Amino acid sequence: DSGVTQTPKHLITATGQRVTLRCSPRSGDLSVYWYQQSLDQGLQFLIQYYNGEERAKGNILERFSAQQFPDLHSELNLSSLELGDSALYFCASSETGATNEKLFFGSGTQLSVL
Amino acid sequence: AQSVAQPEDQVNVAEGNPLTVKCTYSVSGNPYLFWYVQYPNRGLQFLLKYITGDNLVKGSYGFEAEFNKSQTSFHLKKPSALVSDSALYFCAVRDANQAGTALIFGKGTTLSVSS
Fold it and tell me: Would you say residue B102 has pLDDT above 90?
């Protein structure tokens, strides 16, 4: 168990809908990362937060947004969902977000858009 | 921009034989390099990392990796494969000289160890 908790584990929704994925980092970790894993694109970095502030941004669509709250949990909001958004979404955390730190990954949220 | 290439989608080895999973990288500055493993229906688990120092890095479960700066490679190795090593392996790189960059992963290599 990595100590990173993601909810829900599975999510099934329809095109055009909006969903929220939640992540609780390991105790003491200040930095949270979001990744999207799909068969064709592999593991794509979406966004990183450190202590509530955005630190790095990757290939995150404008329809997607994220935030990190004062208690350090993070939420990834996906709106106007399309079939192609179906993927496994991972959250990871690290202690300070420094470039030499290893990341601890949650078990992911499997999103299916029908 | 940083990138990682894992040239093999799948590597097949027999149990007891040595295994190598290949990785090459590209960064503008100095690299921090990582290997992660993913078992079915699980998140990624850290295996090892290269930050600085000895080019041969030892990690979890008997795995090791060799950093080769001239070839920009960081191949994962194990002297004797186990069936339980069968999983999806990811190489990842981060630019040590640029704050605000994220850990970028390769597309992954499926390792299949047969008994």
Answer: no
